[in-house]
UniProtKB/TrEMBL annotation:
Record bears the keyword Translocase: no
SUPFAM superfamilies noted in UniProt: PLP-dependent transferases
InterPro entries cross-referenced by the UniProt entry: DegT/StrS_aminotransferase, PyrdxlP-dep_Trfase, PyrdxlP-dep_Trfase_major, PyrdxlP-dep_Trfase_small
Similarity remark: Belongs to the DegT/DnrJ/EryC1 family.
The species this protein was found in: Streptomyces phaeochromogenes
Protein name from the UniProt record: DegT/DnrJ/EryC1/StrS family aminotransferase
Signal peptide: none
Gene3D superfamilies attached to this UniProt entry: Aspartate Aminotransferase, domain 1 (3.90.1150.10), Type I PLP-dependent aspartate aminotransferase-like (Major domain) (3.40.640.10)
Top-level taxonomic group: Bacteria
Keywords: Aminotransferase, Pyridoxal phosphate, Transferase
Pfam family, one: DegT_DnrJ_EryC1
GO molecular function: transaminase activity
Length: 373
């Protein structure tokens, strides 16, 4: 049997009765769209973070897009972010009509290099979009300083950072608004698509509710400015509501896997150049993915296939080098750290129900493969 980086079937086995009860709850409620489960999940998710408002949306990409739009971002504006991210971060910026502007990432934690942001600000800059990639947070203090100095809004991309903390504060509470994805692989995953935006600002959440509902001010009202149909599905909301009560346990499970990898792979880090993930001071990592790094990455991945282990790369193509963003004018070499990482990083299997013997299989195979290189 092949081992993949992610698999939800063991979780489904463990939680089947509760998940099916969630489906039954919605099907028998008499309200299939924007009903009590969406409302309940929005309240629970806001409460978990100690934030005033939450608007459920249909996926994480639209959480970023509508989040930016609700913060006033549109055509002609620039949004500063990173190219070492899931392409949807940038697709969402593009979807608002604004222009993505990239800064490089740091060589230690692979996250936005906040020291480069001030130089990227132009008179058109409207927003900063830090991505809390892999499960830990971007250094926010310098970002907030730039935002204050230039009157910019900050939207956090929290799609990979549910429950992560930064100097004790939860991801999702560190900017003007925060976008989450509940794509099934995420730390809090639905059984299908889902997303949400958190904010303390009542006018921002009002705008989000309008944007996700065709642009209508209220349910049977008229459209003044057209919006989208981007509602969080009622069934997914009920599933997420149940799973939110287990989020801290999922995170503990991920951390236990990370500890076992760190112990089992420490020798390869010292003697065979395998770079393990580092947690930046002040961060509590939730390990959405466990990213390691080696200059001979492609050979390692190929050799591991022989052990029945199929790995992923998050991400092999920096967004600024994709054909779809060629019009932004970045050439190879413009983001050197991001580009080098894309050639060297790969992700080990990581999810809370990953069996101990499979973790050990991965560790043992890596030892054999790296020694034989
Ligand atoms: C998954 C992800 C998204 C997009 O979320 P979807 O729910 O798949 O639309 C956006 N940004 C980041 C960083 C992600 O990992």
């Amino acid at each position: 049997m092949t081992t993949y980086v992610w698999d939800y079937l063991a979780e489904y086995q463990n939680e089947r009765a509760d998940l099916l009860d969630a489906v039954e709850t919605v099907f028998s409620s008499g309200q299939l769209v924007l009903g009590p489960s969406v409302e309940g999940f929005e309240k629970d998710f806001a409460d978990y973070h100690g934030v005033r408002h939450c608007a459920g949306v249909d996926n994480g990409t639209n959480a970023v897009k509508l989040g930016l739009q609700a913060l006033g971002v549109g055509p002609g504006d620039e949004v500063i972010t990173v190219a070492n991210t899931a392409a949807p971060t940038v697709v969402a910026i593009d979807g608002t009509g604004a222009t993505p502007v990239f800064v490089d990432v740091r060589a230690d934690d692979y996250l936005m290099d906040a020291t480069q942001v001030a130089d990227a600000v132009t008179p058109r800059t409207k927003a900063l979009l830090p991505v809390h990639l892999y499960g830990q947070c971007v250094d926010m203090a310098p970002l907030r300083k730039v935002a204050e100095e230039h009157g910019l809004v900050v939207l956090e991309d929290c799609a990979q950072a549910h429950g992560a903390r930064h100097h004790g504060e939860l991801a999702g509470t560190l900017g003007d608004a925060a976008a989450f994805s509940f794509y099934p692989t995420k730390v809090l995953g639905a059984y299908g698509d889902g997303g949400a935006v958190l904010t303390d600002d009542e006018s921002v959440v009002g705008e989000l509710r309008r944007l996700r509902y065709y642009g209508m001010e209220d349910v049977y009202y008229v459209v003044q400015t057209p919006g989208h149909n981007s509602r969080l599905d009622e069934v997914q909301a009920e599933i997420l509501r149940r799973k939110l009560t287990r989020l801290d346990r999922y995170i503990e499970g991920r951390r236990a896997v990370a500890r076992r990898y760190a112990e089992g792979l420490a020798g390869l880090a010292t003697s065979h150049g395998l770079v393990l993930p580092s947690t930046t001071h002040g961060n509590d990592h939730v390990y959405y993915v466990y990213v390691v790094r080696h200059p001979r990455r492609d050979e390692i991945i190929e050799a591991l296939k022989g052990y029945g282990i199929s790995l992923n790369i998050s991400y092999p193509w920096p967004v600024h080098t994709m054909t779809g963003f060629a019009h932004l004018g970045y050439t190879k070499g413009s983001l050197p750290v991001t580009e080098q990482l894309a050639d060297e990083i790969f992700s080990l299997p990581m999810y809370p129900t990953l069996a101990l013997d499979v973790q050990d299989k991965v560790i043992a195979a890596l030892h054999e493969v790296l020694r034989a290189l």
